Amino acid sequence: MNGKRPVYCKRRRSFDVAWLCGWLIVAALSRTAGADTVYLADGTTATVDDATFIDGKLRLGDGRVVPRADIKKILFDRGASAKNEEHAIASDVSVSDLLASGEAAKKKYPDANAIYLIDVGEHILHDDGTQRQRSHHAVKILKDDWRGIAEIGHGFEEGRDRVTLVRARTIDPDGTVYDFDPADLKESKPVEGVTSYSETKTVSGHLSNVNVGSIVEIIWDFESYNPYDKELFHPGWTFAGTEPSVWSRWTITIPKSQELHYRAYNVPKANAAPVITETDSQRTYQWEMRDLDPIEPEPAMPPIQQVAPRVFVSVHDTWDYLYDFLGKFQKEHIQLTPAIQQKVSEITSDCTTPKDKLAAIYHWLQREIRYVSIKGSMGSGWSGHPASLTLDNGYGDCIDKAVLFSTMLQAVKIKSFPVILTTNDMPADDRTLPRLYANHAINKVYLDDRVLYLDTTAESFRFPFFRPDDHGVTTINVLEREIGTIDVPPASHNAIGIGFDMAINTAGDVTMDLDIDLTGSLEAGIRMALEQINDTLLTMVAQQAINSISPGAQLQDIQVSKKSDLNVPLTIKMKVTMPGYSSFAGDLMIVPLPLSEGIHQYAEVSLDERKFDIDYGTSGEIRQHARLKVPQGYEAKGLPDPLHIETPYAHYQASYSYDGQAIVFEDSLSRSGRVIPKKDYRAHKKLLERVADYARKPIFLKKVADDPT
């Protein structure tokens, strides 16, 4: 469901040459003499006959110098042609300037893998609804891994788009230039794998002499001369990434008759508002940032683009047009037919309640309709194929399966609607700006007085659980004409419970019955893995797992519940012997809990400070219950005190008890929500460190008498 996007690097960077700052304004001012009006942020205006833009400042004709941040827009009093659009791409940057910029950036960022010297993009909307996109990237390669950008390409849809490679070249450190001939581009239909097919084609090529130290420069021109819908215009831009950026600029040009709405995220206040310029027929918005440091990855951080500076725009200020556009297709495709009714009757023949029928249809769709995406138009990409076609084919992608699910639920009188969303491993969209930005579709279902969300694209989720990357996101529900939110489920919906029943002899050998029960995404993930292996391989995998706990341990037996039956909770039972598991110190036997230390490890709190939130993806819970039968002649010694600690996001409690024959240990770590804000990092770090420290404490058994046997 993603829109068209270039195959070439998406990240943006730029070029540190002073005269390039404000390049668009300078070029416009230098065309002809005229009385131009400058609109300032304080509400005043200035009329100038001759303005120059130097070092990020606009020098007015009366001598005043105004920073770019203080300029709202410039109205040019001249009849510039709407087709004279070449000013937005700095295509005349010299080789010497690029080399100088690259060397300066290398000194500043010696440990970088690559540095973006130029990262310029422009989106243009014409009066007739056609669109044009330009991109100009120049990248200095500092590590061998980045030589892969020698492979260049761009996608397009035949009959709708036209793509032109304006420039592609490699520049050696000594100034030698290797130009790529656009005539050498090869056109092909991309190989997208066995589950995805589309009408998109690509042009691609390979640049020569790309080595560490090289600069690769690419300029693409992309024209949508026959767009699927001329009312849709909602591009976006990201200004930074994991590598440094010298200069990044994004320009939007639209007809003056239209309004542009935008949202800026993570953009410094001085850069958040665009510089706006006007001609008699167009209005141009420009965002620009320079000297962007790389984003350093942290464990369990949000997606890079979520924390990077980014801007989204749209020509719509309400969702009405998009609701109408997508809703028309969905209404046409959600049509209950006799064949669908018959299939639903077969699936639900043994069901007596609406809940049972819903679960049966949910499980059947996961298992029996294969995930395959075949898209020939924007309509099918965003609103799916007709439900009857997906059933006949036996395959479909997320929106196809969502349309079929809603249709099948009509047959059992359960109301459901497809909803479109962006999964939580992608940059979030707050939906305050109406635009078609999403990558997935699932279903909103009304069952009695409850609202459920279900995702049929997975294969192993037991009702009512659904994929964790759907949790905590916003939804576009076009048929109900609403923007919704999927709550993060309770921690118990993503839980693992581990039970140990252990017996120890006086030599420290252990026999153990191990029981594992699972729910939610943990259950689905392990179920899927188990379904891929046979019993022999399962035994081998389990044996390796217990050997990691105790070298020399032996698996005596393993039993798994009906792993392919989604109606049955997944459980795993093992019998294990662990010779020499315990250690001795004088008259003390030291017994660690088998899995506790391995479970309670938290790399996400390894940093002293964090720049970004912790993003777990979803909620979670871990429960342990261990019973340790104490050998004759020993007694428990110095059991740890109970621990109870909680924050607004997590709760942990643990305790030991001893009745003279057996020690019982119980603990539970429950984490609600999926995001820990960085402002609460210290408290969360303290909690998890205390949990990990508690889990490392072994059990001490003190010898009190010789074993009479």
Structure, explained:
This protein is of the alpha+beta class. 20% of the residues lie in helices and 35% in strands. The chain contains 14 helices and 43 strands. The strands form ten sheets. Strands 2-1-6-19-20-17-7-8-15-10-11 form an eleven-stranded mixed β-sheet. A hairpin with a 5-residue loop joins strand 10 and strand 11. The protein starts with 22 loop residues before the first helix and ends in a 6-residue tail after the last strand.
Summarize the structure.
Helices cover 20% and strands 35% of the residues. It starts with 22 loop residues before the first helix and ends in a 6-residue tail after the last strand. The strands form ten sheets. Strands 2-1-6-19-20-17-7-8-15-10-11 form an eleven-stranded mixed sheet. An eight-stranded mixed sheet has the order 32-33-31-30-37-41-40-39.
